[in-house]
Amino acid sequence: MSLLGRFLDPDIDRHLLTQEGEYVIDEVTKHWVTILLPVLGVVACIPLFASMPFLGPWFWIAFVLAVPLLIACLLRIHSMHMDRFVITNMRVFRVNGILSQHMATMPMTRILDISVYQPFLGRLLGYGHFTFESAAQDQGLRDISFVPDPEGRDLTIQRTIQRAGLRASFTRQTEDDDERDGN
Question: Which of 57, 97, 132, 149 is the most exposed place for a label (fewest CB within 10 A)?
């Protein structure tokens, strides 16, 4: 990947332990609701730029309002694009940041509990917030917000933990089993 490409795409594959057999099960971007306000800000810049030729010598007022708003909104949109939550067969991790990049990881063996919170609007629009509880005292990965399809993502993590054999598997005894046991 080119030097510029590192600032335009999070490139999740370079964080994988492919030599050890790690592969991506799910790569999660933020829910679309996180970019709604920045997109509206970009749209609000259009009339400001369009009005500049008609303002004569006062065009700079529209320019001073529009340029910082446009830059802030585009940076926010790009920041949401660069924020990824990844579920692999070995761990969960989050990569975020544009100029400086932060990565937090948690092995599947450390996940004790996952809390999923869906506010009213999240239930309507299909997003929720995760809180991970781990066996470690200090956690680099605790809260993941604006996760699309949180129930499905939670089930994906639970299935991955189960398939890895990290939690005991319980099977229900049938009535036939109870009769054979003399119960």
Answer: 57
**H or E segment at 146?**
strand 143-148
C-alpha 17 chain-centroid distance: 20
CA distance 137 to 156: 25
pLDDT in tens, 74-100: 999 999 999 999 999 988 999 999 888
Rounded-to-integer distance, Cα 89 and Cα 166, Å: 12
Residue 35's contacts (CB-CB under 8 Å, 6 or more residues apart) are 76, 77, 80
Burial class of residue 177, CB neighbours in 10 A (0-12, 13-18, 19+): exposed
85 three-state secondary structure = strand
DSSP structure class, residue 108: G
Region 15-30 average pLDDT: 91
Report the 10 Å Cβ neighbour count for 31: 20
Please name which of 107, 108, 86 lies closest in space to residue 163, comparing C-alpha atoms. Answer: 108
Record the tokens describing residue 95, joined without a space: 């990569």
